Amino acid sequence: MPKNQFIKFDQWEKTIEKKFVVYADFESILPPDEKYHQRHEPIAAGAVFLREGSVIEKFENFGPNCVRQFLEWIEKKTEEVYKWYDENAHHPMVNLTPIQEILFPTSTVCYLCKEKFTDSNIKVIFINTKLYYYTL
Fold first, then answer.
1. Residue 50: what pLDDT?
2. DSSP per position, 7-71
3. Are strands 122-127 and 130-135 parallel, antiparallel or unpaired?
4. For each of the chain's 136 residues, which pLDDT tens digit applies?
5. Complete DSSP assignment for 55-122
6. How many CB atoms within 10 Å of residue 92?
7. Which end of the chain is less congested by CB atoms within 10 angstroms, N or C?
């Protein structure tokens, strides 16, 4: 048996903040079904749409059309997010400092997870509008 029965995420320094997030959940029943061992039949859908950590909109729908209603709702949210990024996210990357340009190619660990780079880990960077890949 494991020592700790419950685990909890506690490495928040390794996360990257997202501008928009959707958390969604579906509830289903398992009606008797002779053809399949188990058949999940959705009966409710719920979601919350966040921008910069604040709840912007909630969604909930019950009944046989809950999945269709959710998909229509999430499609509208997708269009809103795409429009926001199209209008607000076309800023050029800030140029690296001369020190950063020297340090990046020589770095051996990821700044987020502190894991060493391996052949399967690839570093990517733009320096003066040029794309550079580094594999260690």
1. 95
2. -----GGG----SEEEEEEEEEE----SSSS---EEEEEEEEEEETTEEEEEEEEESTTHHHHHH
3. antiparallel
4. 667 778 787 877 777 778 999 999 999 999 888 888 888 999 999 999 999 989 999 999 999 999 999 999 999 999 999 999 888 887 777 777 888 888 877 777 776 677 777 766 665 555 544 444 444 3
5. EEEEEEEESTTHHHHHHHHHHHHHHHHHHHHHHH--PPPPPPPHHHHHHHHH--B-TTT-PBP-TT-E
6. 7
7. N
Closest CA to 24 of 8, 55, 48: 48
For residues 33 and 66, is the Cβ–Cβ distance under 8 A? Answer: no
Tell the residue number behind the tokens 């910069």, with chain if given.
52
Each domain of the chain, given as residue ranges in start order, spans 12-88, 98-135
